[in-house]
Amino acid sequence: MSASARHADGEADAGARGGERFRIGLLGHGTVGGAFAVLLDERADEIERFNGQRPVISGVLTRSQGDFAEILAEADLLVELIGGLEPAREYLLSAMRSGKDVVTANKQLLSHHGEELFETAREQGVRLRFEAAVAGAVPIVRVLEESLSATPIERISGIVNGTTNFILTEMSAGSSYEQALAQAQRSGYAEADPSDDVSGRDAAAKMAILARLAFGTPVHLDEVSYEGIEHLHGDDMQYARELGLGLKLIGTAERRDGGLSVRVHPAFLYGGHPLASVVGPFNALTVESEAITEITLSGPGAGGRQTASAVLGDVVSVMTGGARPPAPPLALPLIEDVASAFYLHLDVADNPGVLAAVTQALGEHDVSIKSIVQRGLGENARLVMVTHAVRESSLRTAVDRVAEFDFVRSTPRMIRVIEEEFI
Ligand SMILES: NC(=O)c1ccc[n+]([C@@H]2O[C@H](COP(=O)([O-])OP(=O)(O)OC[C@H]3O[C@@H](n4cnc5c(N)ncnc54)[C@H](OP(=O)(O)O)[C@@H]3O)[C@@H](O)[C@H]2O)c1
User: Fold this and answer.
1) Is 100 one of the annotated active-site residues of the chain?
2) How many angstroms separate the Cα of 92 from the Cα of each of 15, 35, 95, 101, 195?
3) Whose CA is nearest to atom 12 of ligand 1?
4) Which residue, 39, 105, 155, 208, could crosslink 288 as a Cys pair with Cβ 3.0–4.6 Å?
5) pLDDT digits (tens, 9 = 90+) for 353-411
6) Ligand 1 mutation target, pool 2, 32, 72, 80, most atoms within 8 A of CB
7) In angstroms, what is the span from residue 105 Cα to ligand 1's centroid?
């Protein structure tokens, strides 16, 4: 039975019982939209029991069925699960301009056109809900908007891409990047074209949305610096183990130097960090503030049914009047050059004086070494170091200088290290 046929029956049942109907126009009936329709069927009785209104799907739009204007006219609320920028943007703006509340799971759209959408919601006094756009079923949006609305947040950081976390988990068990990616594709965690995930761009879109929520400052996807996992090597994982570190793709939005830094990059974490133990396709977010020390939420970051449950939570929150229109923006300047500890991987000729030359070149740019592992490889040697915190620009200049030495045998690699250091 098609979703529309099924929901036509649902509406008839509700009408027969005489309950008030809350009409949902569903845009998109793919992985998440289809799961949403099924979940709504399963949960409608319970929602009606505590809310007095029965949620029903009053129309479904896909590429081959439905008419947007008719669906809009007949709905109390629109759920957008089409994805991409257009026509999703135009549909959401039209719905809000006609006074309808909207729910979306569309991270691309919010990270490109968030301010336009928030502004329209504010002007029209309607609700724009988007829990499923970040971290799937993990209820981070509601926690930031409601539970922590009176808490000055210093940092939000986390694993917001389950595909890359799955790949890194496989690599830490000994797989190469290529083997781990193929396994992720076979298990359905990575798409045929995984570039948005492995490049860090998907995580960057989510961090732009979280930064707006946590710090009130509009952040466009293009303002988030991101680096992916494609260039990580199996031996980075091996050294991580030797140094007692785990390797994750971490998104961070934090107050820094009077501004806001939003970034995504692979990072080594010490064993005690709350994100170090998150494995497989899971997502997790740590929120830090002087008032709360830290709170970590984790759970499934994707999947049709899991994401649909977050979408339905948003629908119920609108039905029960629990959500407000978005707050007006603040403006913290965006800071790009932030200090961090770094892991540095160098293959060099095994000659006397090499280590001294490297440490001197690093020292001239304020890079000091916290720990070092040296391993002989026949005529060559591998130096793996962890630095003390240093600005990224200083480290890059220092590493460029080191790369010029004729004893360096391959391009040096650097990965940030997050020390276990809460606000
Ligand atoms: N999948 C996940 O696990 C997940 C997790 C978190 C967030 N999300 C977000 O949820 C949204 C939906 O993702 P999905 O995985 O469900 O996508 P999907 O499986 O590709 O489904 C997209 C649906 O939208 C319809 N559609 C596409 N273009 C359209 C257009 N121009 N006009 C009308 N309908 C159109 C498609 O119609 P046809 O059926 O005719 O093709 C399909 O029904 C995205 O924003 C995504 O980022 C997904």
Assistant:
1) no
2) 28, 21, 5, 9, 27
3) 81
4) 155
5) 999 999 999 999 999 999 898 888 889 999 999 999 999 999 999 999 999 999 999 99
6) 32
7) 9
